[in-house]
């Protein structure tokens, strides 16, 4: 490679890295602003001002949010839906995907056709609502869990991943006397840990960020999810979901501080969990999407 080519490549890299760094800053600034305002002391807070570093740090907004009964109810609802929903998502998705990998399964092609059909055609909001209503699930957590039980796209990706596993291991296990359930839980799942970790993150994030289904199916404010509560705080003109706006020292908390404190608290769990699953996340998505 000539010196001229080397200089051109280096210049390109320099410009490229500069653009990526600048774009990253643009994405990071709103998050820094949200954290900064949520930590700004009410005594020095100025409305409609841009903060990158709090002039005076205060945790009154977080204390107020975490002591609110409405926030506690929303946190409980979201944690419950996330844990139960993620476990059931993994169980149903992996068991159905494993069954569809078996060529001897009766009507296997028809089942796969139905799964693929749901990727192209969607019944719409009204039929979904009527189905949940007729099942008697309105205003219950199960309306949010069952309505998002299996994603056709995730099912196809998991099926592709399971098909990439060596079939000889299953044959050996069956020769040793293991039945189909034993093969699935003792052989297939342990080999699928990267995919399980990746889809655990997918499902958990989806349930944690549940908003639209909660808006449709939940009418009781005590069962609202975190995202629905945060929307009420941010979008609605009056903070009907928070009682009072005073600290223990009788300081009046700005509504903006309460809003952004709720946003930060709602984001923290996912930000904490993601680094621990990152290595499995990348590996699982790659293995589940390159089946030839």
Strand residues, percent: under 5%
Poorly predicted sequence stretches spanning 5 or more consecutive residues: 1-6, 237-241
The percentage helix is: 55-70%
Give the biggest beta sheet.
none
Summed up, the domain count is 2
- What is the end-to-end distance? 36 Å
- Strand segment count: 0
Which CATH class of the largest domain applies here?
Answer: Mainly Alpha
Mean pLDDT: 81
Outline type: globular
Radius of gyration: 25 Å
CATH topology call of the largest domain: MetI-like fold
Written as H for each helix and E for each strand, in order along the chain, the element string is HHHHHHHHHHHHH
Tally of helical runs: 13
**Please, what is the CATH homologous superfamily of the largest domain?**
MetI-like
- Tell me which CATH architecture of the largest domain applies here: Orthogonal Bundle
Structural class from helices and strands? mainly alpha
């Amino acid at each position: 490679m000539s010196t001229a080519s080397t200089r051109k490549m280096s210049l390109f890299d320099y410009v490229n890295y500069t653009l990526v760094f600048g774009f990253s800053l643009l994405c990071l600034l709103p998050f820094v602003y949200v954290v900064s305002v949520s930590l700004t002391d009410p005594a020095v807070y100025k409305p409609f001002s841009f903060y990158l570093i709090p002039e005076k740090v205060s945790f009154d907004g977080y204390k107020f949010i975490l002591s609110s009964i409405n926030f506690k109810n929303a946190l409980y609802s979201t944690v419950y839906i996330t844990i139960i929903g993620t476990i059931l998502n993994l169980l149903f998705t992996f068991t159905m995907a494993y069954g569809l990998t078996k060529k001897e399964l009766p009507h296997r092609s028809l089942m796969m056709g139905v799964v693929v059909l749901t990727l192209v055609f969607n019944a719409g909001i009204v039929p979904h609502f009527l189905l949940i209503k007729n099942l008697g699930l309105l205003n219950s957590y199960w309306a949010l869990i069952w309505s998002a039980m299996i994603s056709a796209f995730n099912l196809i990706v998991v099926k592709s991943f399971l098909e990439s596993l060596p079939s000889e291991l299953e044959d050996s296990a069956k020769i040793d006397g293991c039945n189909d359930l034993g093969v699935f839980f003792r052989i297939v799942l342990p080999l699928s840990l990267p995919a399980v970790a990746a889809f655990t993150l997918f499902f958990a994030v989806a349930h944690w960020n549940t908003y639209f289904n909660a808006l449709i199916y939940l009418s009781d404010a005590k069962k609202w999810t975190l995202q629905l509560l945060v929307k009420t705080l941010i979008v609605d003109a009056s903070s009907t979901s928070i009682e009072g706006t005073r600290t223990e020292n009788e300081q009046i908390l700005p509504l903006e501080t309460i809003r952004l404190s709720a946003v930060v608290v709602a984001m923290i769990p996912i930000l904490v969990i993601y680094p621990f699953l990152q290595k499995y996340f990348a590996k699982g998505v790659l293995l589940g999407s390159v089946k030839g």
